[in-house]
Amino acid sequence: MSIGLATRLWTKVEKTETCWLWRGATNGVGRPGVGHGQISVTVGPYRKKRVYAHRLAWELAYGPVPEGMCVLHRCDIPNCVNPEHLFLGTPADNVRDCITKGRKPKFSPTSLPLYCINGHFKSAANVSVKTDGSRTCRICHRERERNRQQRIRQQQEIA
Q: Which three-class secondary structure state does DSSP give residue 10?
């Protein structure tokens, strides 16, 4: 790996108290900060490919990932690149880890998203279900309500 690639990786990381969050491109389908981080690497004179940021972080810290192995997250945060939170496993380990930790219901290929559009984990305690069956992130709802109340107060002060 080139030093330039390592620098590119770590400059796009936000270190929090627990996780090191990737703030570059993700596979989160237009949702910044959601999904596994991705970074482009040069693989030939005229060719680049995207690799997962957490996999590259593992390689920079511990060396190459053995053939057929996956880099898994202990913290269950897809955009975390903290090498201490990563471990190796087989694809079967990856699926077992996913089901065991409740990220995907057993035998359900069409599971609901794990994170809201702002990156908050959708746990039973953090999601409210409306009468029409739609689900809302409670953290996002609180933030929207707080902002709305603040706008109302500001409008009342101006008037």
A: helix
Does pTM surpass 0.85? Answer: no
Q: Where are the domains positioned within the chain?
A: 3-107, 116-159
The yes or no reply on domain 3-107 and CATH 3.90.75.20 is yes
pLDDT band at 108 (very low <50, low <70, confident <90, very high): very low
109 contacts 96 by C-beta, under 8 angstroms: no
Task: Report the amino acid identity of residue 140.
Answer: C
Q: Which residue reads 């990156």 in tokens?
A: 119
Quick one: tokens of 64? 């190459």
- Residue 33's Cα: distance from chain center in Å? 6
| Cα gap 94→71, rounded to integer Å | 8
> Could you tell me whether strands 127-129 and 135-137 are parallel, antiparallel, or unpaired per DSSP bridges?
antiparallel
